[in-house]
Design goal:
Largest interface: A-B, 60 and 60 residues
Shape of chain A: globular
Number of helices of chain A: 11
Oligomer: homodimer
Strand content of chain A: 15-25%
Structural class of chain A: alpha/beta
Order of helices and strands of chain A: EHEHEHHEHEEHEHEEHHEEHH
Radius of gyration of chain A: 20 Å
Largest sheet of chain A: 11 strands, mixed
Distance between the termini of chain A: 37 Å
Chain lengths: ~325, ~325
């Protein structure tokens, strides 16, 4: 197994990335390799700084990095030697088995789409993120790869996520919900109405119907399908709101009952930890013929360590291969 | 002032509606009237049950009610004597000044659009909801009137909400954000990109740019514009998540520190109250030439009481008139 990590991607790169890599090595087998992409001098200095020295780690010199604010396609075209572009190229050629970046998501998605083959039967990849809910983990897909999907893209997301849920989260009974503005079939926009018609007749899927925003964390389903615009808003709203509520609760308790705060700190920290996104590592870009892990721009060392851990897990259970077989099986049934 | 209330709309109708009306009477002047729409026998029985007897309350007999699950336009066509249809008709004729319902939102929006004139310059109305954030109240518009708006509809929402924020919430400096998936102009879908071009050049608006989901509760702006699908998901997700987090916090504290719970109950109740949607009453459907207040389907008596209170406030400050003048002023500037 060869895991490639973008040392230059994310708000806290390169330091937190290198720290995460150092911690992630614990998950690698002796024969595995970890390839760090970045400028050689930066890599050397940062590895020295955090004390990362391991024969399994190789440095891949790239002279450029794509910034968070750059236009994805333009940046990829202009920066021929970017970490993101080079990693996708290596994955496309089969030189690495998994690629991980906390950098510009749009550029990482575009590079993966351009330079790595799709899984046969998948027309557009989607980012599937695992979120902690009050009823166990759930998957939301897509959270930003494709802001203007077609109905059959949403259907493909549902099929891939059903495999993902079973294989990675160990969910035996997937319950797939389509994000809309009411349970009724008549509600929603054109995309949702047409996607619903495709998903509900698919015999391989356990479709629970349309779900509303309030259902996502209420256990109504464990796989939630939506377009990348809606999914991205859901994801970021959830992060911001959860953080805000926890801060508010802590502050108000501190004001009203200052004596309790010290004793309650570990309780609140524990609740927060259970619902912390960083614990789940990065999100896979599903539909691409390689393990592609997209990390949050704010990723710290734990998120990177977890991304390395899940990339190895994905490879071990052959997530991509199982999705491919599932898609081709369905293709044959369709043709029959 | 004549306020019309749908006694049959909402999950807890008619009882909670009638209770809310009874409490709402405190906000009415002696010469004001409150018209209750519903079947005469139901109204009589419910008013007797809650002890509502006031010379300002009149009963308007309607034989039908539109159910929550019914298709809005079809239901309006078939049920000629529905509470919602009759209220909109009365508002269109100027027989009442404000209409309030916690019933089928789609039907209430459609009836208002069909039977009441739009404010000149507004092509489609939007539902503007006031949400409690950690930095004071903010407005989200649209939360479900129009799931497939055009860019100029979003521009109209921004203009109307700027008036609403100032007049009703007393916000002197409105900061308008356009909900997207990144701050950068290049991010978002086609709707957002085109709407941005209209909003950012409008000299009457203080546009802070694109905002992400996490900005909505973080004080980045106080007016957030989006399409009705996205806004509805945001609103319901927020409700569900906030409720879930508060429950979790309460439960975990109870488990970890049972002695504290009783003492903390009022603190948590107080935080919850500050962020409780019911405290803000219903949401106005902006762009219609009448005060139209849409209440949550789960409205209890407090929500109805607050809806009556805000409908009177809207009328007092002449919200509709000020929006109309603002729109016509802008129209002249455009033409000049």
């Amino acid at each position: 197994m060869r895991v490639a990590v973008d040392a230059m991607g994310g708000d806290h790169a390169p330091r937190e990335i290198i720290r995460g890599v150092k911690e992630g090595l614990a998950h690698l087998a002796p024969a595995d390799q970890l390839l760090l992409y970045g400028p050689q001098d930066v890599l050397a200095a940062e590895c020295a700084a955090v004390g990362l020295s391991d024969p399994r780690v190789q440095h891949v010199h790239c002279t450029q990095a794509i910034e968070m604010c750059e236009s994805p396609v333009e940046a990829l075209r202009q920066k021929k030697d970017s970490t993101i572009g080079r990693m996708a190229q290596a994955a496309g050629k089969g030189e690495v088995d998994a690629i991980i970046s906390a950098g510009n998501t749009g550029a990482f998605v575009a590079a993966s789409q351009l330079r790595i083959k799709p899984i046969p039967g998948i027309s557009r990849p989607g980012i599937a993120v695992v979120v902690p809910t009050f009823h166990g983990p759930a998957i939301i897909c897509d959270v930003g790869a494709n802001v203007a999907p077609k109905p059959h893209h949403l259907h493909e997301y549902a099929r891939m996520c059903a495999v993902f849920a079973k294989l990675i989260l160990g969910i035996e009974e997937t319950r797939i919900g389509l994000v809309s503005i009411g349970e009724e079939e008549s509600k929603g926009n054109v995309l949702v109405k047409e996607a619903r018609n495709l998903i509900k007749v698919d015999p391989t899927l356990n479709f629970v119907g349309n779900v509303e925003g309030r259902d996502i964390f209420a256990g109504t389903g464990n796989v939630f399908i939506c377009d990348g615009f809606v999914g991205n808003v859901i994801l970021k709203l959830t992060e911001g709101l959860a953080e805000g509520i926890f801060k508010t609760v802590r502050r108000e308790i501190a004001e009203a009952a200052p004596d309790f705060v010290r004793q309650l700190e570990p309780v609140i920290a524990n609740i927060w930890k259970k619902h912390d996104f960083a614990e789940y590592g990065g999100a896979p870009l599903l539909g691409i013929n390689s393990v592609v892990i997209i990390c949050h721009g704010r990723s710290d060392h734990r998120a990177i360590m977890n991304a390395i851990r899940v990339s190895i897990e994905f490879r071990k259970v052959d997530l991509i291969g199982v999705i491919a077989r599932q898609m081709s099986k369905h293709g044959r049934e369709d043709a029959a």
